[in-house]
Amino acid sequence: MQLNSAKFTVTGDWSAVFDDMYERGFTDGLPVIPPTAEAVARMLEAAGMQSDELIGVLPPEGGPATAEKVAINAVMAGCRPEYFPVVVAAIRAVADPKFNLLGVQTTTNPVGPVLVVNGPVRKAIDMNCGRGCLGPGRRANATIGRALRLCLLNIGGCPPGDVDKAIHGMPGKFSFCYGEAEEESPWEPLHVENGFRREQSTVTAVAGQGTQNIYAAFHDVDAIITMLADGMAVYGNNGYLRAQGNPLLIFTPGHARLFADAGWTKKRIRDELFERTKIPRGRIPRSVQLSKPVYLDYDDSQACLICPDPESILITVAGGPEPYHITYVPNFGTTLFSMAEVR
User: Fold this and answer.
1) How far apart, in Å, are the Cα atoms of 122 and each of 22, 130, 249, 307, 337?
2) What is the distance between the alpha carbons of residues 232 and 62, in angstroms, rounded to a whole number?
3) Quick one: 179 exposed, middle or buried, by C-beta within 10 A (0-12, 13-18, 19+)?
4) What pLDDT sits at residue 142?
5) What confidence tens digit (pLDDT) does each residue in 172-223 have?
6) What is the pLDDT of residue 6?
7) pTM of the entire structure?
8) How far is CA 340 from CA 91, 170, 297, in A?
9) How far apart are CA 108 and CA 106, in angstroms?
10) What whole-number distance in Å separates Cα of residue 124 and Cα of residue 134?
11) pLDDT, average across residues 55-75
12) Given the DSSP bridges, would you call strands 325-329 and 314-317 parallel, antiparallel or unpaired?
């Protein structure tokens, strides 16, 4: 297969190769796999793609994410060839204009793409949907998310500090990818809720600010909702600044069953959380801010919203089985989630 990218020759051991790639600014700071022509070709073959096929355009530089360029970064990240169609779907999702990748790439906010994988591909590539799914230990989760980050760095042209202006950043900017535990959920999975069939595989991209753990180990679902809403109602999060975006919740299978057994649907949970996370304008200081929040001229009794409507709250099921912890991922507030099929 003919490849078009520039070629580099480095003598020495793997340490020397890594040093060279680091000095060229090709890495995220961690060691990478050298993207040999043979390894890149295997990625492209796994997805049945030609090297010059355009997947998307990545800001801020408007770099063309061709199949070859994405495959190079997938090799560097440590992906297996069978993961590559998922990486391609992730690129398509974040390149969708509604995701506002330019804002995600250049903001001072500690935001990065969160990838939620649905459908049969989860099992085919051994993706972790259960205990520890947001942490280390599973190659698919770690390297697919990392491949996307390397593409954002190397194709989008967004080096930290120079273009990526995140004040602190967050660990999820290395990799933030998990699969939904569809088999353990009493509800429709995320992709089915959004018009796909169960037998289809998808990647959903959400712009997340990090994670907030909610230790909601109650038996009563109203108590769980009360604690969860309290943990979400933080007006310092970007969602309240714009009343936009998609707050993301990751329920354990145990929590999901508690709610389902009590007759609660996802819709009821969304409705309750939307109401309970409304914050009266009077609670928020009226001092001058650097930004101009949407609630700037609200009167004291007017409600500030975490997102525009209950339907904007995303609920997924993943993690260990115990109904102990719920993970809340605050949203960037200037994006909409985007979903792409794994082909």
Assistant:
1) 32, 11, 19, 29, 20
2) 35
3) buried
4) 98
5) 999 999 999 999 999 999 999 999 999 999 999 999 999 999 999 999 999 9
6) 87
7) 0.97
8) 9, 25, 38
9) 7
10) 19
11) 98
12) unpaired
